[in-house]
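Design request, tokens follow.
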């Protein structure tokens, strides 16, 4: 074999090898057991501060944001922590943006200021804030590989970016915060379905809840979508139209399942006409969803990868990019409004994985903030595609690139 032939063969083998190596590494992490730890979980929550009647602290000046969590708290010391284990119950609290503090070694570190709260007191506070802000609430559900710190940091950034005037809530489920624990995260996410759907049901049924803007990222979409279906089916009025603005950022959801079942149920004609809509952010540059599709065998909603090679060839023959998207649901009636919008962020993707464009790319951040505020037909930055419900975000001319850090209101790391 000549050197040229060797290099050519290596070029063919290398991508496949790296993919297989990545999957094997992921599977190795999946089959390794989750460490229970050296301390009985019941010992973590013995202290009364883990189950407060009011707030665990009276100082809420730096804790303007709300959280609900199924993570296990550790109340054995003065510095309460929220762990990556499953909790024995759902807990409530308040938190704020990351703050720099000195640790035990007098080293400056970033921490999330938070306090646990009694459930009844938490709901009373939420009702007061929502009542004075028009009954609107922004609810965020994080995705894979998150800790309470990282999901809180992202929620705080989202509040700054969108300048949302109502309360902002994050729902924090026990993601492990590790790349090699993907299927552990999947398992914990499915375990938490009942907790989240019960919370969403209660929030949607409050008389003071007028509009829920529901944002999910990555794996969080698989927690959110079934919960919306549950609330839709079980609402006393056979309605839940206050869950109106649903945003799926890089959703790690089976695209075909979404087309067949989810979109048809959640985006029924009656609900769409009452202003229910879903916005999906998708990117061909999303490496995390590319790997997820290889593991699961089918394309993800947040990636426009074509599963059908004949469809890809057809698009290529028409001079179009070989990208496939979820189709609009079929309706027997004429809709007054558009229910599904897909925004392709490939051209403006940022970060090593391309999996969090809505918080990392200035162009996507501006679009995302506008959608949260209720804009339905954006023209700024969006380019129509050959599909009526799919739009492309385009890169700014060279030399005019926006400042991602400033526009996305990210805190430097």
């Amino acid at each position: 074999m000549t050197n040229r032939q060797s290099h050519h063969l290596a070029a063919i083998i290398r991508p496949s090898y790296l993919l297989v190596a990545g999957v094997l590494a992921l599977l190795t992490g999946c089959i390794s057991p989750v460490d229970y730890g050296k301390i009985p979980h019941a010992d973590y929550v013995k202290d009364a501060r883990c189950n407060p009647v009011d707030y665990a602290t009276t100082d809420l000046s730096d804790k303007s944001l709300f959280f609900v969590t199924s993570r296990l708290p550790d109340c054995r010391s003065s510095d309460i922590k929220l762990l990556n284990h499953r909790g024995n119950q759902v807990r409530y609290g308040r938190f704020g943006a990351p703050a720099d503090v000195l640790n035990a070694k007098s080293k400056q570190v970033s921490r999330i200021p938070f306090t646990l709260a009694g459930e009844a007191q938490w709901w009373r506070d939420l009702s007061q804030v929502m009542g004075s802000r028009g009954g609107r609430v922004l609810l965020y559900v994080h995705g894979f590989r998150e800790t309470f710190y990282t999901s809180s940091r992202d929620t705080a950034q989202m509040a700054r970016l969108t300048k949302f005037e109502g309360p902002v809530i994050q729902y924090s489920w026990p993601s492990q915060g590790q790349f090699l624990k993907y299927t552990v995260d999947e398992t914990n996410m499915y375990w938490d379905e009942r907790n989240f759907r019960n919370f969403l049901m209660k929030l949607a049924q409050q008389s003071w809840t007028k509009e829920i803007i529901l944002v999910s990222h990555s794996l969080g979409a698989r927690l959110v979508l079934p919960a919306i279906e549950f609330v839709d089916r079980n609402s006393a009025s056979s309605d839940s139209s206050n869950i109106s603005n649903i945003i799926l950022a890089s959703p790690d959801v089976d695209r075909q399942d979404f087309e067949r079942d989810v979109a048809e149920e959640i985006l029924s004609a009656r609900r769409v006409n009452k202003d229910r809509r879903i916005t999906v952010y998708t990117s061909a540059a999303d490496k995390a969803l590319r790997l997820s599709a290889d593991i699961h065998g089918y394309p993800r909603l947040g990636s426009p990868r074509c599963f059908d090679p004949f469809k890809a060839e057809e698009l290529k023959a028409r001079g179009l990019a070989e990208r496939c998207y979820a189709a609009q649901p079929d309706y027997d009636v004429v809709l007054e409004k558009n229910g599904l919008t897909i925004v392709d962020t490939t051209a403006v993707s940022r970060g090593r994985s391309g999996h969090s464009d809505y918080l990392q790319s200035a162009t996507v951040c501006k679009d995302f903030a506008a959608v949260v505020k209720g804009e339905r037909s954006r023209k700024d930055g969006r380019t129509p595609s050959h599909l009526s419900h799919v739009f492309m975000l385009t890169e700014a001319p060279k030399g005019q690139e926006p400042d991602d850090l400033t526009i996305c209101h990210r805190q430097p790391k």
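Comment from the thread starter after seeing the answer: thanks! The longest strand covers residues 81-95.
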